Amino acid sequence: MRRKRVLPLAALLLCTPALAGTVPASAAPQATPSGPLRILLTNDDGYNAPGIRMMFQRLTAAGHDVTIVAPLTNQSGTGTKMMSGTTITVKHPEPRVWAVDGTPGDSVSFGMSEVFADRAPDLVVSGTNFGPNVAALATHSGTVGGAVAALEHGVPAIAVSTGGLTVPVPEPIFNAMRPTNDFTVKLIERLRAKAQNGRLLPEGVGLNLNHPVVGTDGTGTARGAAVTTQDPQPVLKADYTDSGDGTWKVNVTVVSTPAQKGGDVEAISADKVSITPISPNWNTDHADFAKTATLLAGLRP
Question: Pick from 110, 148, 164, 187: most CB atoms within 10 A?
Fold first, then answer.
Protein backbone atom coordinates (compact mmCIF):
# COMPACT_ATOMS: atom_id res chain seq x y z
CA MET A 1 0.00 0.00 0.00
CA ARG A 2 1.43 3.36 -1.00
CA ARG A 3 1.60 5.97 1.75
CA LYS A 4 0.51 9.46 0.80
CA ARG A 5 0.97 12.98 2.17
CA VAL A 6 4.49 12.27 3.37
CA LEU A 7 6.08 15.64 2.63
CA PRO A 8 3.69 17.90 4.58
CA LEU A 9 3.86 15.57 7.56
CA ALA A 10 7.64 15.41 7.31
CA ALA A 11 7.76 19.18 7.62
CA LEU A 12 5.44 19.04 10.62
CA LEU A 13 7.44 16.39 12.46
CA LEU A 14 11.02 17.27 11.65
CA CYS A 15 11.16 21.06 11.53
CA THR A 16 13.02 21.28 14.88
CA PRO A 17 15.97 19.31 16.26
CA ALA A 18 13.85 17.59 18.91
CA LEU A 19 12.39 15.13 16.41
CA ALA A 20 15.23 14.99 13.81
CA GLY A 21 -11.18 8.41 2.79
CA THR A 22 -13.61 10.34 4.46
CA VAL A 23 -14.70 9.69 8.00
CA PRO A 24 -17.88 10.67 9.86
CA ALA A 25 -17.38 14.15 11.24
CA SER A 26 -19.42 13.34 14.34
CA ALA A 27 -17.03 10.54 15.32
CA ALA A 28 -13.85 12.59 15.29
CA PRO A 29 -12.63 15.00 17.94
CA GLN A 30 -12.94 18.45 16.39
CA ALA A 31 -10.26 20.18 18.47
CA THR A 32 -7.28 19.30 20.60
CA PRO A 33 -7.98 20.20 24.24
CA SER A 34 -5.58 22.47 26.07
CA GLY A 35 -5.64 20.12 29.07
CA PRO A 36 -4.83 16.39 29.24
CA LEU A 37 -5.54 14.33 26.14
CA ARG A 38 -8.12 11.56 26.47
CA ILE A 39 -6.25 8.56 25.04
CA LEU A 40 -7.56 5.10 24.18
CA LEU A 41 -4.60 2.75 24.54
CA THR A 42 -4.69 -0.61 22.75
CA ASN A 43 -2.27 -3.21 21.35
CA ASP A 44 -2.14 -6.71 19.88
CA ASP A 45 -0.02 -8.43 22.56
CA GLY A 46 -2.85 -8.42 25.10
CA TYR A 47 -4.10 -5.98 27.73
CA ASN A 48 -1.61 -7.17 30.36
CA ALA A 49 1.51 -7.30 28.17
CA PRO A 50 4.57 -5.39 29.44
CA GLY A 51 4.60 -3.02 26.46
CA ILE A 52 1.09 -1.65 26.93
CA ARG A 53 1.51 -1.39 30.71
CA MET A 54 4.75 0.55 30.31
CA MET A 55 3.09 2.85 27.77
CA PHE A 56 0.14 3.37 30.13
CA GLN A 57 2.47 4.44 32.93
CA ARG A 58 4.48 6.78 30.67
CA LEU A 59 1.48 8.49 29.09
CA THR A 60 -0.15 8.86 32.50
CA ALA A 61 3.05 10.33 33.96
CA ALA A 62 3.02 12.84 31.09
CA GLY A 63 -0.37 14.03 32.32
CA HIS A 64 -2.71 12.32 29.87
CA ASP A 65 -6.05 10.69 30.70
CA VAL A 66 -5.44 7.11 29.52
CA THR A 67 -7.82 4.14 29.31
CA ILE A 68 -6.71 0.68 28.14
CA VAL A 69 -9.13 -1.09 25.79
CA ALA A 70 -7.14 -4.02 24.43
CA PRO A 71 -7.41 -7.71 23.55
CA LEU A 72 -7.90 -10.21 26.35
CA THR A 73 -5.29 -12.52 24.76
CA ASN A 74 -2.33 -12.21 22.42
CA GLN A 75 -3.58 -11.22 18.96
CA SER A 76 -0.26 -10.67 17.18
CA GLY A 77 -0.48 -10.87 13.41
CA THR A 78 -4.25 -10.42 13.21
CA GLY A 79 -3.89 -7.32 11.04
CA THR A 80 -7.17 -5.46 10.51
CA LYS A 81 -9.32 -8.52 11.28
CA MET A 82 -12.58 -7.95 13.13
CA MET A 83 -14.81 -10.69 14.53
CA SER A 84 -18.29 -11.28 13.11
CA GLY A 85 -19.91 -13.13 16.02
CA THR A 86 -23.19 -12.15 17.65
CA THR A 87 -21.64 -11.88 21.13
CA ILE A 88 -18.30 -10.76 22.53
CA THR A 89 -16.81 -11.28 25.98
CA VAL A 90 -15.48 -8.15 27.70
CA LYS A 91 -13.82 -8.03 31.11
CA HIS A 92 -13.21 -4.97 33.29
CA PRO A 93 -10.48 -6.29 35.63
CA GLU A 94 -9.47 -2.95 37.09
CA PRO A 95 -10.26 0.76 36.79
CA ARG A 96 -9.32 2.26 33.41
CA VAL A 97 -8.73 -1.21 31.92
CA TRP A 98 -11.05 -3.12 29.57
CA ALA A 99 -10.10 -6.52 28.11
CA VAL A 100 -11.94 -7.54 24.95
CA ASP A 101 -11.97 -11.17 23.81
CA GLY A 102 -11.25 -10.25 20.19
CA THR A 103 -8.80 -8.48 17.94
CA PRO A 104 -7.28 -5.00 18.29
CA GLY A 105 -9.94 -3.80 15.83
CA ASP A 106 -12.67 -5.29 18.01
CA SER A 107 -11.15 -3.60 21.04
CA VAL A 108 -11.08 -0.18 19.39
CA SER A 109 -14.63 -0.66 18.09
CA PHE A 110 -15.89 -1.56 21.58
CA GLY A 111 -13.95 1.32 23.10
CA MET A 112 -15.42 3.85 20.70
CA SER A 113 -18.96 2.55 21.11
CA GLU A 114 -19.06 1.92 24.87
CA VAL A 115 -16.07 3.14 26.86
CA PHE A 116 -15.91 6.48 25.03
CA ALA A 117 -19.63 6.60 24.19
CA ASP A 118 -20.01 10.17 25.46
CA ARG A 119 -17.19 11.59 23.34
CA ALA A 120 -14.53 10.10 21.10
CA PRO A 121 -10.97 10.04 22.47
CA ASP A 122 -8.55 12.69 21.28
CA LEU A 123 -6.04 10.02 20.25
CA VAL A 124 -5.64 6.26 19.97
CA VAL A 125 -2.20 4.82 20.73
CA SER A 126 -1.57 1.17 19.80
CA GLY A 127 1.46 -0.36 21.52
CA THR A 128 4.15 -0.52 22.55
CA ASN A 129 4.51 -3.69 20.49
CA PHE A 130 7.18 -6.31 21.19
CA GLY A 131 9.06 -6.37 17.88
CA PRO A 132 9.06 -4.17 14.77
CA ASN A 133 6.19 -3.48 12.40
CA VAL A 134 8.00 -2.35 9.26
CA ALA A 135 7.73 -3.38 5.60
CA ALA A 136 5.30 -6.30 5.09
CA LEU A 137 5.19 -6.87 8.86
CA ALA A 138 3.16 -3.67 9.14
CA THR A 139 0.61 -4.88 6.59
CA HIS A 140 -0.23 -7.91 8.75
CA SER A 141 0.28 -6.27 12.14
CA GLY A 142 -2.47 -6.23 14.75
CA THR A 143 -0.76 -3.21 16.30
CA VAL A 144 -1.18 -1.28 13.07
CA GLY A 145 -4.64 -2.82 12.68
CA GLY A 146 -5.73 -1.18 15.92
CA ALA A 147 -4.58 2.20 14.62
CA VAL A 148 -6.40 1.63 11.32
CA ALA A 149 -9.63 0.87 13.20
CA ALA A 150 -9.28 4.19 15.02
CA LEU A 151 -8.73 6.06 11.76
CA GLU A 152 -11.89 4.46 10.36
CA HIS A 153 -13.72 6.04 13.30
CA GLY A 154 -12.22 9.42 12.47
CA VAL A 155 -9.82 9.50 15.44
CA PRO A 156 -6.07 10.27 15.09
CA ALA A 157 -3.93 7.20 15.81
CA ILE A 158 -0.31 6.21 16.39
CA ALA A 159 0.92 2.61 16.19
CA VAL A 160 4.09 2.13 18.27
CA SER A 161 6.59 -0.75 18.01
CA THR A 162 10.07 -1.54 19.30
CA GLY A 163 12.59 -3.84 17.63
CA GLY A 164 14.93 -4.48 14.73
CA LEU A 165 15.09 -7.02 11.92
CA THR A 166 17.01 -9.61 13.92
CA VAL A 167 16.01 -12.52 16.10
CA PRO A 168 14.22 -10.83 19.04
CA VAL A 169 15.91 -10.94 22.43
CA PRO A 170 13.43 -10.02 25.18
CA GLU A 171 15.56 -8.02 27.64
CA PRO A 172 17.04 -5.53 25.12
CA ILE A 173 13.60 -5.00 23.54
CA PHE A 174 11.97 -4.38 26.92
CA ASN A 175 14.78 -1.94 27.79
CA ALA A 176 14.31 -0.17 24.45
CA MET A 177 10.61 0.29 25.18
CA ARG A 178 11.51 3.02 27.65
CA PRO A 179 13.11 5.34 25.06
CA THR A 180 10.33 4.30 22.67
CA ASN A 181 7.70 5.55 25.10
CA ASP A 182 9.69 8.71 25.86
CA PHE A 183 9.86 9.45 22.14
CA THR A 184 6.13 8.79 21.76
CA VAL A 185 5.36 11.36 24.46
CA LYS A 186 7.67 13.84 22.72
CA LEU A 187 5.94 13.16 19.40
CA ILE A 188 2.49 13.73 20.92
CA GLU A 189 3.65 17.02 22.41
CA ARG A 190 5.00 18.06 18.99
CA LEU A 191 1.65 17.28 17.40
CA ARG A 192 -0.20 19.20 20.11
CA ALA A 193 2.04 22.23 19.64
CA LYS A 194 1.49 22.22 15.89
CA ALA A 195 -2.25 21.54 16.14
CA GLN A 196 -3.00 24.92 17.76
CA ASN A 197 -6.23 23.47 19.18
CA GLY A 198 -7.07 21.83 15.84
CA ARG A 199 -6.64 18.18 14.81
CA LEU A 200 -3.51 16.38 15.98
CA LEU A 201 -3.06 14.92 12.48
CA PRO A 202 -4.60 15.55 9.06
CA GLU A 203 -7.98 13.87 8.65
CA GLY A 204 -7.61 10.18 7.78
CA VAL A 205 -3.86 10.08 8.51
CA GLY A 206 -2.19 8.05 11.24
CA LEU A 207 1.42 7.25 12.13
CA ASN A 208 3.26 3.94 12.29
CA LEU A 209 6.18 4.56 14.65
CA ASN A 210 9.04 2.05 14.92
CA HIS A 211 11.85 2.56 17.44
CA PRO A 212 15.13 0.64 17.05
CA VAL A 213 16.91 -1.39 19.73
CA VAL A 214 20.16 0.55 20.19
CA GLY A 215 23.11 -1.05 21.95
CA THR A 216 23.55 -4.59 23.15
CA ASP A 217 21.25 -3.97 26.12
CA GLY A 218 18.74 -1.77 24.29
CA THR A 219 19.32 1.32 26.43
CA GLY A 220 21.05 3.36 23.72
CA THR A 221 19.66 6.51 22.12
CA ALA A 222 18.34 6.46 18.57
CA ARG A 223 20.39 8.36 15.99
CA GLY A 224 17.59 10.69 14.99
CA ALA A 225 14.17 10.23 13.42
CA ALA A 226 12.95 9.98 9.85
CA VAL A 227 9.55 10.29 8.20
CA THR A 228 9.49 7.23 5.96
CA THR A 229 7.49 5.18 3.50
CA GLN A 230 6.64 1.51 4.02
CA ASP A 231 9.34 -0.63 2.43
CA PRO A 232 7.64 -3.16 0.09
CA GLN A 233 9.92 -6.09 0.96
CA PRO A 234 8.39 -9.18 2.61
CA VAL A 235 10.98 -9.43 5.47
CA LEU A 236 9.91 -12.97 6.43
CA LYS A 237 9.91 -16.17 4.36
CA ALA A 238 8.15 -19.37 5.34
CA ASP A 239 9.39 -22.81 4.25
CA TYR A 240 7.18 -25.89 4.59
CA THR A 241 8.26 -29.50 5.13
CA ASP A 242 5.78 -32.32 4.64
CA SER A 243 5.62 -34.51 7.76
CA GLY A 244 3.80 -37.20 5.82
CA ASP A 245 0.81 -37.29 8.14
CA GLY A 246 -1.16 -34.38 6.68
CA THR A 247 0.78 -31.78 8.67
CA TRP A 248 3.60 -29.54 7.51
CA LYS A 249 6.43 -28.14 9.61
CA VAL A 250 6.87 -24.40 9.20
CA ASN A 251 10.24 -22.68 9.37
CA VAL A 252 10.24 -18.88 9.18
CA THR A 253 13.42 -16.95 8.38
CA VAL A 254 14.28 -13.28 7.90
CA VAL A 255 14.85 -12.38 4.26
CA SER A 256 17.74 -9.96 3.86
CA THR A 257 17.18 -7.67 0.85
CA PRO A 258 18.43 -4.14 0.14
CA ALA A 259 16.38 -1.53 1.97
CA GLN A 260 14.35 0.89 -0.11
CA LYS A 261 15.72 4.42 0.08
CA GLY A 262 13.59 6.53 2.37
CA GLY A 263 11.79 3.48 3.74
CA ASP A 264 11.15 2.25 7.26
CA VAL A 265 13.63 -0.64 7.00
CA GLU A 266 16.43 1.75 6.04
CA ALA A 267 15.68 3.97 9.03
CA ILE A 268 15.51 1.14 11.58
CA SER A 269 18.68 -0.41 10.17
CA ALA A 270 20.45 2.93 10.74
CA ASP A 271 19.24 3.02 14.39
CA LYS A 272 16.78 5.81 13.59
CA VAL A 273 13.16 6.09 14.66
CA SER A 274 10.91 5.47 11.66
CA ILE A 275 7.62 7.39 11.43
CA THR A 276 5.44 6.30 8.52
CA PRO A 277 2.21 8.15 7.68
CA ILE A 278 -0.59 5.63 7.06
CA SER A 279 -4.18 5.80 5.86
CA PRO A 280 -7.12 3.43 6.53
CA ASN A 281 -7.58 2.28 2.94
CA TRP A 282 -5.87 0.37 0.15
CA ASN A 283 -6.00 3.04 -2.54
CA THR A 284 -3.07 3.29 -4.94
CA ASP A 285 -1.58 6.62 -5.89
CA HIS A 286 -2.91 8.50 -8.93
CA ALA A 287 -0.25 7.21 -11.32
CA ASP A 288 -0.87 3.53 -10.50
CA PHE A 289 -4.63 4.07 -10.64
CA ALA A 290 -4.30 5.57 -14.12
CA LYS A 291 -2.08 2.69 -15.33
CA THR A 292 -4.55 0.11 -14.05
CA ALA A 293 -7.50 1.95 -15.57
CA THR A 294 -5.70 1.84 -18.94
CA LEU A 295 -5.18 -1.91 -18.62
CA LEU A 296 -8.87 -2.44 -17.93
CA ALA A 297 -10.27 0.08 -20.44
CA GLY A 298 -13.13 -1.36 -22.48
CA LEU A 299 -13.65 -4.40 -20.26
CA ARG A 300 -17.31 -5.38 -20.12
CA PRO A 301 -19.32 -8.18 -18.47
Answer: 148
